[in-house]
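Second opinion, please. Please look over this fold, written as tokens:

===
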Amino acid sequence: MIYLTPLVFNQIELSATEIGTGLASAAFAGTISRLFAGGLLDKGTSSSLVVKWAAYLAIVADFCLFNAQNFDSFVIGQALLGAAAGLYWPAVELAVPSSCDSFPSGKGFALVRSADALGTSFGAILGSYMAFIESIRMIYVIDAICLILLLFLLPQKAIKKGSSQLFKKLTNKNFNKAKATIRMKVKWLPQLFPILGLSLLATGIFSLLQSALPLDLVRGGIYRPPLEEGWSGAILALQLSLLVILQWPIGRWLSMRNQKFGLGISIANFCIGCLLLGISAIWERGIILVLIAQLPLAIALAAFLPTATEAIIQISPKEHRGIAMALFSQCFAISALIAPIAAGRVIDLQGNGMTIWLVMSLSCLLMLPLTRSQKLIQREYSR
């Protein structure tokens, strides 16, 4: 749904800047709700309860977006959707290690990322079909149905309250002493800076793939001709289908190696994929390069998401993992706040996205040495 939203509102002739602003409103709302969710989780709130709140909010957002016919209603729907995402992601991410028991959490994240990719790919395929039959707004109806199914599923498969158990252990006669000790041990926070920096870059590209790429495809490059919305959606579905195929094997492979290796693989492939997208704009048959770029981009996404999440879990102390995951989620929110607006402005001014992809490719090249940072080594106290 997120990948196809720019195509929906391109139909009612919103400018690229307006579409980017609407997507950014979702990021702003998500920034607030992520911190709120992280605080609740660290205080012992059940992950399943937070996920339920997110589902209810997202259903309302789907209703608003399905009926939106102007910029104002688009922004309202996106803000509600962003707030729902901000509640959902920290809760689900924190639920993974607390539900794994003896199963390695690295493989758990790889499995969850595979499920994410499968759902996103299936949604993109359905959305592409809706675009071909000129009923693309039905993606919001499909999303609402999936959320209702989620609400029925949650009571039967309750998510374990890992952070709740940790919080309750502190509520004893030594609570004040423990709280003071935790405040003194803030040295864990700087350890997150390298991974958060890489996450801002990777999530920025991820946001651009959702917002700028659909518009870049339907509007065309310098010499690359524009695509119809249905074919644009099909290319996005191809990328997500590749992600489904690659997520589990790559995630499982990287779970047996350290975080440096996985992050290096991810950033290098982001660099290649963005470069191919950029130079596709100056070739009449540039769509071939766009198609080729989907493979390194899928590899990059498959490598980054589980590796970065596992790095956050390993680096942060158990009693602060809720806030740590919220900070990690904020990278998605910050990127989604800045990238769509900037990309929309560039596309409106230049008529294509070549500059966007070349800048992101160069940024990946410059950030690649950061994947070797010593701060990405797993910390013994967080195991």
Notes: The longest helix spans residues 71-100. The chain has 14 helices and no strands. The chain has one domain: 5-171+187-382. The chain has a mean pLDDT of 81.
